[in-house]
Amino acid sequence: MGMDRVIEKKKWTTAKILQIAAIALFAFFLLYLLFFRDKSSRLYVDKSQVTIATVTEDKFQEFIPVDGVVYPKNTIYIDAVQGGFVEKVFVEDGAILHKGDTILKLANANMELSLMEQETRIFETVNNLENTKIGLEQNKFYRQQEIVQIQYQIDQAKKDFDRKKKLYEEEVISQKEYEDAKRDNDFSLKQLQISLELKKLDSVSAAKRSRSIDGTINRMQENLDMLRANLENLYIKAPTDGQLSSFNVEIGETKSAGEHLGQIDMKDGFKLKANIDERYISRVYIGQAAEFDFAGKTYNLSIGKIYTDVTNGSFQVDLFFDDQEPDQIKRGQTLQLRLSFSSATDAIIVKRGGFFQETGGNWIYVVDPSGEFATQRKIRLGRQNTSNYEVMEGLEPGEQVIVSSYDSFGGKDKLVFK
Fold this sequence. Notes:
24 strands; 4 helices; Elongation Factor Tu (Ef-tu), domain 3; 4 domains; alpha+beta; rod-shaped; conserved putative lor/sdh protein from methanococcus maripaludis s2 fold
């Protein structure tokens, strides 16, 4: 009878190996889920529904678009100097006028009556002053006549005195007769001296009064001229050559003094008025450049005046042409300008798009070189114009980015193209 043989039990059976393998695979799967799996959120999008642009390095110039309205370079406003009702209208709006051409006539009965009354008073006053002046001249001749009469008396008194003096020396007449003749002669000489002094005083006073009368008459004449000029102001005339505009007046209308009636647009060129957002008020300055395209040509302008009053979130500037201006532009026409804030410099740029409204320029979707997906990346944008943004950080030339709107992406980390 043979002996029983001891069979050695196997440690690594097929079932056991399979069991260990399954456990290891499960553990590896757990590790993958915990540490290695891509945990970013993703969204599948149709590639044809997004706009992809290439980041480039090119010349960049910062500017903003503004609308400029064409105005005449120089305008003179026409206002009613005196009030009244419109009696006659001589021209129509848009008429080409020469300096001095009559535009309209106002009527003011009260002013005309007042002028007549004041003219009458002034004429009466001037007439009285002229009579006073004539009286002064007559008084001068009266004084001269008096002196001549005294001189005649002196001549007689002297001859009588000389004769009686000789007779007195010859003891022909009495001493009383001699003294009477001497007294008459001395009296006549004193009278002449007094009359000469009075004549001098009268002459100085008359000259002063005459000058005063002349000054008063001149002032009254100036007042009369002013009154007549005020009446002449009822005729509204063109102050310069140019085209009448903003003129809308009807016969019979009443116009107050100082009321605006129209304007004369001078034919010496145009300017543009533009409204600019108040955010840029600190960056706008006199001489700042702007340009626009018209009829296939670019025209250059510069800011010549800044109106700092802010109305409805914007302020206004006047821009003047640097050289040639277009022949075809018309008053009131609107042109789109590019107002420059910098000169052209080398920069990395990316095309403008709807992405900015969602990201504020802080991040963007960058397309993977494989072209199969795009991922978020932080960036920093600088200046901008109507076409591009300046890239300060985060992108390199040649990279592709999604620039269309991100509204439907929900801020996913990754976009997978399908």
